[in-house]
Amino acid sequence: MSASTDEVAERGRTHEAPPPRRRQFTKRTSLTILAYLTPAFIFVIIFTYYPLVVGGQMAFRKWSLYDLTSTPFIGLENFTTLIANPLFSKVMLNSLVWVVASLVVQFLIGFMLALGLRKKFRFRGVYQAMIFYPWAVSGFLIGILFRWMFNSEFGVFNDMLMRTGVSAKPIPWLANPDLALVAVIVANVWYGVAFFAIMILAALQSVPHELHEAAAIDGAGRWRTLTRVTIPTIRTTLVLTVLLRVIWIFNFPDIIYGMTGGGPGNQTQIATTWMIQFTQQGDYGLASALGFIVMGVLVVFTGVYLTLLTRERKP
Amino acid sequence: MIQKDPLWVSIPRAAGLGVWALISLFPLYWILLTSFKPANQIAEYPVRYWPREFSFSNYTSLFQKSEFGAYLLNSLVVSASAAFVATTIALLSAYVLSRFHFRSKGAVMMAFLVTQMIPAFIALGPLYQMFTNLGLVDKRFGLVLVYIAMSIPFASIMLRGFFDNVPDSLEEAAMVDGASRFGALWRVIVPVMTPGIIATFIFNFVNSWNELFLAVTLINTDDRKTIPTALNGFISNFNIEWGPMSAAAVLTILPTMVLFAFASRWIVAGLTQGATKG
Predict the structure, then answer these.
(1) pTM for this structure?
(2) Which positions in chain A touch B156 (Cβ < 8 Å)?
């Protein structure tokens, strides 16, 4: 059996001699491709794309869950209502702080962890599982866990601060307008570090050893090797990972929703938690319009970010 | 690397890794601890880092005061069915994406990736409307359908990475031996890819298990709720009962944690491959 399959495999390999046009593109092949893709398409089109398209045009309608009989077209009124809302600029500013602060800290800690994990050591697999587990927990539940730990009366964080003498009296983390945003960002950092560590570690492991050896032979120290050899080599991965995370954190209301619900007094309200609030009030028109603004911001950001970072490379 | 690290490198590194391990594990420890404290010791000051006595009272009151057994079962059935169907369907689409070169392939990948970037709340209203027309509101089956659709795109991208690692010659050999394409996929490739398939299944399972906003919108009846929907009900009450809440949190986290730990190596491989190809 094995001899004959080997032989056949050999024949199979000679068949695919010219690599770019490996297979004869027959009608039969196209039918196969179509047949294999169809089940996935049916689900994604019916349950994802169709509601998204319908939802998209709700941005230009008055659309309330409590009055589905009349959903008139109102042009850009939802957008002007949103922008005229005094909360709008605050929500945008909160979103910016939420994304930038979470991202910078996650990146720095994640990068250091990845550097620390680069070399094999005993129980490295166990260690990775230990720091990776937050990923198996929903953002919503993480919000609840941190809400408990940041509790002003019986929370463990206040207890630690008071035992160590950092603070003389309990701090009302989630009730204080200035501190609530800090607290939700702490929770988000805790959650997101593992992602950066894993992605950066994978990139680091793809750097050929010869590069490091060559740098060592040239007399480069660790710091120089890191900044002049390693980071430039994995630059593309870093740029893309950061971009994916920006999009993702911007769109990620779960932690805030579980922890503060956007409060106190909208101090932790970001664009997507605000969208949730609109949907809870049944006003899908406003929610959808806000969704468009979020997408617009992300598209513009992606364009600018990629242009800046790819142009800089060219001599 | 050839050279051995000097102490000024290895000691800070070990210390740094150790500190992060503590930070990473602490919330888990804390919620476990809270869940085993007797009701009267949860809101206690100063806080105790090791309980005076262990008690299961939070767990018993959780099951007595709420339908938590039903929530667990609902979550299990909904997530497992959605993950099973989504993984099977994605196996087919990922196979095609990995093995064939066709003109619209980029567009297909793009169509999958875009679904990952749009805020899902836009879709909630229309989905509710559609489900009302189809009679699927407040049905667990309806939730399964939405979760399948939610899981397919990323599962396809992830599985494609695993397919790319299996040489073409394997199924070509089987096909020359007279197997159909589907037969070759099913009997030759699937067995080789088992770790990747399990990892994808677990990833999908965990995502459905944790999903909140769709479930809150589509399910109303109490004994049809999944765990996140139920927890959402717990926190909407102004006073959260932290004892039963922590017990519920532990029971929600543990199953997915065990699954993730079991498959973390393959999930990491799937995620990093998927992302670099994307």
Answers:
(1) 0.88
(2) 40
